[in-house]
Amino acid sequence: MFLELAADATAAAAATTGLSEQAKFTMQHLQYLFQALTYAGAFAAIGFAAIGSAYGCGTACSAAVGAWKKCYSQNKPAPFQLLVFAGAPLSQVIYGMIIMFVIMGKPDVTQAAWVVYLLVGIIGGVAMGISAAWQGIAGAAACDAFAENGKGFTNQLMVLGIVETVAIFVMAFAIVLLGKI
Question: Which CATH number does the domain 29-179 belong to among 1.20.1250.20, 2.40.160.60, 3.40.50.300, 1.20.120.610?
């Protein structure tokens, strides 16, 4: 709000008296600030998605290691498929990266657009991160179940896909919204 008022005041002063050196300095620094906040939004998209992916992978990987240990102690073969469940939450980082590139690809950041870029980056990144965290929890359950009886891989993978769909929707809707600006 303050930045918009300052920009409006600067523009009004420039329109009536010509641009003074101080006004040029202020406008240039406001543009740098808008650009910096846009980049902060871009990084928030991948940063928050990566936090959730790290948590989700950590959860699912821990379960995979525990399931393999159980298999070895029972002299059963350790199923390699558990790596699919353990790595599933990584894809949200890619979705966050795509949103980051879309935001960074905007050539002109206006005094109003940076707010949208910042909020889309933060909210989108958090939503994708939560999706990844829950996908890791579901992946942990899938690791335990599949290692126990070696059945249901496709069904368990579909459940992980349902959780992932949330992140895909967030990415798709963010791209559509950013395309309107």
Answer: 1.20.120.610
The whole-model pTM stands at 0.83
pLDDT single digits (tens) 8-61: 555 554 555 566 777 777 777 888 888 899 999 999 999 999 999 999 999 999
Q: What is the pLDDT of residues 160-172, one digit of tens each?
A: 999 999 999 999 9
Phi, psi (degrees; rounded to nearest 5) at 50: -70, -35
Query: Under 8 Å CB-to-CB from 30, ≥6 apart: which residues?
Result: 3, 6, 7, 10, 111
39, 62, 68, 94, 113 from 91: Cα distances, Å? 22, 18, 24, 5, 28
> Are residues 99 and 168 in contact, defined by beta-carbon separation less than 8 angstroms?
no
Q: Are 136 and 59 in contact (CB under 8 A)?
A: yes
